[in-house]
Amino acid sequence: MKQLSFLLILIFTTNNVYPKKISYPMNFTMPIIVDGSVLEGSKPILGSYLYMKETEVSNQEYRSFLNWTKSMDQSIYNLMYPDTNVWGKGFEAFRNHYFQSNAFQNMPVVGVSQKHAMAYCNWLQTKYNDYLELNTESKIKKVIVRLASEQEWIMAAEGGQKPGANYPWACEGVRYCGPEKKHLGKILLNCKMGTISYETLQPYNTMITTEVYSYWPNAYGLYNMSGNVAEWIEEEGLSKGGSWNTTPYNCRINYVSQYSKDGAASSHIGFRYVIEVVETYDNKTIPKFEIQNKMNSNGFEYIPKQNNSDNFKFMSNEISNLEYKQFLTEYKDSSLKPKVGIWKPIFRYSYFEQYAWHSAFNNFPVVGITYESALAYCKWLGEKYNSNPKREYHKVVFRLPNENEWMHAAYGGYKDLYGWGGSYTRNNRGCYLANFAPLEDQYLYQDSNNNYSWVNNNGIAMNRTADGALIPHYTKSYFPNNYGLHNCSGNVAEMVEEKGTSKGGSWISTQYDIMLISKERYSEPNATLGFRVLAEVVER
């Protein structure tokens, strides 16, 4: 019954206008784990883990919530009922009709406070999770439904435009300038056009609100991000987007958030919500680890002589999640598992906590492990290789390299700042050569106090994505050095034999920290630290 009731709610409160093929914006090599079409009526705004309702919540949709509250407790129903007295002088007729009449059912709900909006989100979250629990075909296990943060709302409204866009569309002003000539010059939003009186307003937009699917959606498929009704956001007492009762200037994306004391109800404020995917299913098994006879078949590259020795071979890539999971299935020591919670200081999204265990991240470098865990992996790998009767060498020691050994391998025969043989972070085509945090001004964030930062509080640091990656990239990404080693600069910092020291920098390091001569200190497992293995042949 729970599934049926929720399906009925979705059928009767949303329009089937979304495209079957969903485009996931700002994915930056993040694996697409879920099929967002199950979140009908919402559009992806960040990777495949953050979705926004494509329209403002309508009167009809809010009534579904009210009907539920009435079945639970009449007093809750009364408390959640919209304040119809928000319609002031000149709009008295709407007090008895706007929310109650079916003629307005597809208009955005107004007269709801910020707390009303949050209560609706909590109700819908329960409904979604009840539905997902019964939907065995969905890869989504659990979601959070909430109001968007200001930064999330701005990002969604921009629809993929460069940060700082005035409106959700590409036109300079508020009139249509797209390819369809029949629409040229038409107003793109529902707002108050300057000093035009309400008697002459109809040719431009509407007297009050309009239906939630009116006008043109932005590039992410979101309607009325500017105009119609301002929308409650997560920050207390704040709304964004402007409304039917404000001028186009006040409907700009980056217009200072409108403040309503205590999040009080208004005739020009409604809301929409975001859906954050926090848990998914993963039914893939871990393939059994098979050691190979030849060293290079195990991913090791020969490193030319250093100090008259030709016995060193380096893993061509940082140890991946899959390789580390294969180790854990055999070693069976829970203390060696990647630590949980390491992503929270960087990202607000719980989705990233799946990094260590979901198969979609198998080819990403393992992070969140201790120095002792890396040593245990090296020991295990040595035991696997040295017990192979058909092995290439009689005895090989697998270990972390010391700093000098690591630098010799990372240089790849060069003696420049980086292993690719140069002092620049891009090639002659402008492509970045590593996964790090470029610091160009156009990728910096500016907060409400005009302070600049390269990591914002929502974890959407654009300067980190300029090189094509938001988090650690695949272990064999970018270009290898002359010795065949990938990501000696950037991606994840690599532990060396000296405990507490790492080399190479990571995906949040600057161009200075990824220089081969640089080194960083660590004290505990984190989301930027991994390792690669050195193989030293001691008996041929």
Can you give keywords for this protein?
paralog of FGE (formylglycine-generating enzyme); four-stranded antiparallel sheet; 540 residues; alpha+beta; disordered N terminus; 2 domains; four-stranded mixed sheet; 12% strand; elongated; 9 helices
Query: Could you list the spans in which at least 5 consecutive residues all have pLDDT below 50?
Result: 1-20, 196-204, 454-462
Q: How many strands?
A: 18
CATH architecture of the largest domain: Alpha-Beta Complex
Report the total helices. Answer: 9
**Portion of residues within helices:** 10-25%
Estimated structural class? alpha+beta
On the 0 to 100 scale, the average pLDDT is: 88
CATH topology of the largest domain: paralog of FGE (formylglycine-generating enzyme)
Assigned CATH class of the largest domain = Alpha Beta
- Shape descriptor: elongated
Tally of separate domains: 2
End-to-end separation in angstroms reads 69 Å
| CATH-level-4 superfamily name of the largest domain | paralog of FGE (formylglycine-generating enzyme)
What is the H-and-E element order?
HEEHHHEHEEEEEEEHHEHEEHEEEEE
Strand order of the main beta sheet, please? 1-2-8-3
Biggest sheet character: 4 strands, antiparallel
Range of strand content: 5-15%
